[in-house]
Amino acid sequence: MMSVIDAHGLTKSYDGHRAIENVSFSVSKGEIYGFLGPNGAGKTTTIRLMLNFIRPTRGKLRIFGEFPGKGGPSLRRRIGYLPGEIGLYEHMRGDHALAFYRDLSGGQAPLHDWICEAIRLSPADRQRRIKTYSKGMKQKLAIAQAVQHDPDLLILDEPTTGLDPLVQADFNEVLHELKNRGKTIFLSSHVLSEVQTLCDRIGVLMDGRLILDADIPTLMARAERQLWILQPSDSGMQPAHPQITGTTFLRKRGDWLVYHVEPKDSGTMLEELANLKPLDFRFESAFEESFLDLYRERRAASRTKSQRGGERTS
Predict the structure, then answer these.
(1) 157: which strand partners?
(2) Which pLDDT does position 228 carry in this prediction?
(3) Which of 224, 233, 203, 240 is nearest to 42 (CA)?
(4) Which SS3 state, helix, strand or coil, does residue 153 take?
(5) Distance from C-alpha of 56 to C-alpha of 61, rounded to nearest angstrom
(6) For the sheet containing 247-253, what is the strand order?
(7) Could you read off the pLDDT of 233-289 as tens digits, one per residue?
(8) Which domain holds residue 259?
(9) Which of 202, 220, 238 is the last residue of a domain?
(10) Domain holding 164: CATH number?
(11) How far apart are alpha carbons 9 and 18 in whole angstroms?
């Protein structure tokens, strides 16, 4: 399958500080690639390199087989970009702004009507001046400008910031539809549930280094399985967290008892659950918690390394 983004050994330094170091990944045509990491990890720096806003200190990067700095207008027209911090011309009306961005992208906007309807950016909304928009309205306008010219690659930096839940759901449908049309989407996000739902693969950046690059099914298989049991506060369960075959009790969350589930036959477990007669129960994959553990482990390792470095220099 053709690679749309190819990054090899990307490094970017500012005055001796390395924002990213030796970052390598690829994104295939028609793939939604999630790019995760805490604030300051280097996600936005990587995106700016892809867009040729900045140049790498070391390493190589190709978009559609071309170097970003040499592709020119023809390459830029194949890309739709939604920045993490939106800067719009607030004196303009929404429709005038979209026309302005349309002209910058080659003068065509075949998806204008579709994207505006899909994210509920009505004609009346587009007649208003941007300075009267709420944060969510500005985000919708920014999404529309990124999608309307029908780019082959969408680069989205925290796209759902400020959107209400209904529009977030609509936007997720937009991304699925674009993927079905063969578009490639590079999605930078802090929202793990969003990435889990939308993406085919993810890369995790921390302290400027790519510490994980894997597909979602593989990560889901690695994640801990949990059993949540809802008990009324006066349930009288004895003991307070009864033992259940194939599980280990972890903690209590409100009226919920949370257990780690071993990868064993579940027949006996379900029989014991039926005997407990809980109000409700569910099985979950602890996807988010596995990432938080990954962040914590990496941060602890970085602190240990820094302390050792300090001891050697003291």
Answers:
(1) 188
(2) 87
(3) 203
(4) strand
(5) 9
(6) 247-253, 256-261, 225-230, 280-285
(7) 665 555 678 888 888 888 888 888 988 888 666 678 888 888 888 888 888 766 666
(8) 224-285
(9) 220
(10) 3.40.50.300
(11) 13
